[in-house]
Amino acid sequence: DIQVTQSPSTLSASVGDRVTITCRASQNINTWLAWYQRKPGKAPNLLIYKASTLKTGVPSRFSGVGFGTEFTLTIDSLQPDDFATYYCQHYHGYLWTFGQGTRVEIK
Amino acid sequence: QVQLVESGGGVVQPGGSLRLSCAASGFTFSSYGMHWVRQAPGKGLEWVAFIRNDESGQYYADSVKGRFTISRDTSRNTVYLQMNSLRPDDTAVYHCAKDDPVLDHWGQGILVTVS
């Protein structure tokens, strides 16, 4: 099975900072990777799919890049609403695997 | 707009059973596969099960294979998760989600406690 490893597990940042989260796959997954935002008590929210395609309505300060085994999610100019937990997810071939999550907290 | 509403959660003893339901609206239910995903207390998201739009295939995480069954009723726009032989480590908030092919819409979730 394909494993996805996310880092860091926690990230402390301030409003206005640029933050980057990394996701590594145990084997080549092409661009079959999505990113989600999760806030306590709310449903997870899809941000990016196919590694770099922004879901309609998601602010442009979110961006994703990557191919194969290494992927990143970047948030430019962190906003108060962005403090949350972020998950990457591999999807393909009837198996879906989430990363362990990265909690973005206020410094 | 897409709405997914879970129901059927609660407290159950180890070894017991529970059936979760997810009522879908706002999209053509018969055209999309559906997932169940869970999050245990203090843990991350864990994919649980998927059913294809035409019920031609069901897929499960190893942790629930043989114990959980996903099904759907297109006439009711509802997807189900039958959970048998429940264990304390099945305690989690369970979400249903629409597949496209990423999980583009999610329900708020329903709590299942095995104790």
Tell me what you see in this structure.
The complex is a heterodimer of chains A (107) and B (115). In chain A, 0% of the residues lie in helices and 53% in strands. In chain A, strands 2, 4, 5, 6, 9, 10 and 11 form a seven-stranded mixed β-sheet that branches. A four-stranded antiparallel β-sheet of chain A has the order 1-3-8-7, with no helix packed on it. In chain A, strand 7 and strand 8 form a beta hairpin. The termini of chain A are far apart. Chain A is globular and about 35 Å long. Chain A has 107 residues and is mainly β. Chain A has strands at 4-7, 10-13, 19-25, 33-38, 45-49, 53-54, 62-67, 70-75, 85-92, 95-98, 102-106. Chain B has strands at 3-7, 10-12, 18-25, 34-39, 45-51, 58-60, 68-73, 78-83, 92-99, 103-106, 110-114. The mean pLDDT of chain B is 96. Chain B has no helices and eleven strands. In chain B, strands 2, 4, 5, 6, 9, 10 and 11 form a seven-stranded mixed β-sheet that branches. Chain B has a four-stranded antiparallel β-sheet with strand order 1-3-8-7, with no helix packed on it. Chain B has 115 residues and is an all-beta fold. In chain B, strand 7 and strand 8 form a beta hairpin.
The helicity of chain A comes to under 10%
Structural class by helix and strand composition of chain A: mainly beta
Low-confidence stretches of chain B: none
Mean pLDDT of chain B: 96
The profile of the biggest β sheet of chain B is:
7 strands, mixed
Number of DSSP helices of chain B? 0
Percent strand of chain B: over 45%
Shape of chain A: globular
Instruction: Kindly name the structural category of chain B.
Output: mainly beta
Terminal residue distance of chain A: 36 Å
The number of helices of chain A is 0
Largest interface: A-B, 22 and 20 residues
- Element-level helix/strand string of chain B: EEEEEEEEEEE
**In oligomeric terms, what are we looking at?**
heterodimer
Query: How much of the residues of chain A is beta strand, in percent?
Result: over 45%
**In which range does the helix fraction of chain B lie?**
under 10%
- SSE ordering of chain A: EEEEEEEEEEE
Rg result of chain A: 13 Å
- Shape estimate of chain B: globular
